[in-house]
Amino acid sequence: MVIKTATFVKSSGKWQDCPEPNLPEYAFIGRSNVGKSSLINAMMNHKDLAKTSQTPGKTQLINHFMVNENWYLTDLPGYGYAKVSKSIRKDFEKLITNYILNRRNLVNLFVLVDSRHKPQAIDLEFIQWCGESGVPFSIVFTKVDKLKPNAAIKNVEDYKTELHKTWEDLPEIYVTSAEKKEGCDEILDFIQKTNEFLANNNVSFDE
């Protein structure tokens, strides 16, 4: 997929305030500091489309971007950051789950996982929740350039092993580096093929 245009649409504090759900939508989520904004910017060939920050939990709203005038990319708040109060964390979790479960044009959720770490309980729990909730999703491993290749591969394989304890078939998995733009084309190809399938089958998101 060639990115011709990528523009910010709006930020929403409630899922009901999101743009009209009339186009295919692909959302990105992960633990705070997983490199979500950097990956989005790399995919869109845009230096600062999504705002990056050294402060975990910076994204506190649902941020929508229009890509090529025919699909939405959504930047969701991170889950599991420790540097906010329990009440704020609960509000974020409610915002995220309500969006994921109620946004009818959400075609796929990309769950970002930091490849530098061994399997983290919070990531595994979120992935399990997606499966139990019937949410279509893919797993995206980030920051593979920060490790030696063998170490990154081992961590990815460790995650697969852990997931196979409860999953017979794993979702689509992507291995990425925002800095080197690894994996970006693969994700965009998936989005393009999915959009073409939806168009060819006259899929409508109207209720």
What does this structure look like?
By secondary structure, the protein is of the alpha/beta class. The chain has one domain: Rossmann fold (3-Layer(aba) Sandwich), CATH 3.40.50. Helices cover 34% and strands 20% of the residues. It has helices at 36-44, 86-102, 121-132, 149-163, 184-200; strands spanning 6-12, 25-30, 62-67, 71-75, 106-114, 137-142, 173-175. The chain has a seven-stranded mixed beta sheet with strand order 1-3-4-2-5-6-7, sandwiched between helices. The longest helix has 17 residues, at 86-102. The radius of gyration is 16 Å and the shape is globular. The relative contact order is 0.18. Residues 53-58 have low confidence and may be disordered.
Instruction: Write the CATH architecture name.
Output: 3-Layer(aba) Sandwich
CATH class: Alpha Beta
Largest sheet: 7 strands, mixed
Total beta strand runs: 7
The spatial strand order of the largest sheet comes to 1-3-4-2-5-6-7
The helicity comes to 25-40%
Superfamily at the CATH H level? P-loop containing nucleotide triphosphate hydrolases
**How many distinct helices?**
5
Secondary structure topology:
Elements: E1 6-12, E2 25-30, H1 36-44, E3 62-67, E4 71-75, H2 86-102, E5 106-114, H3 121-132, E6 137-142, H4 149-163, E7 173-175, H5 184-200
Parallel strand pairs: 2-4, 2-5, 5-6, 6-7
Antiparallel strand pairs: 1-3, 3-4
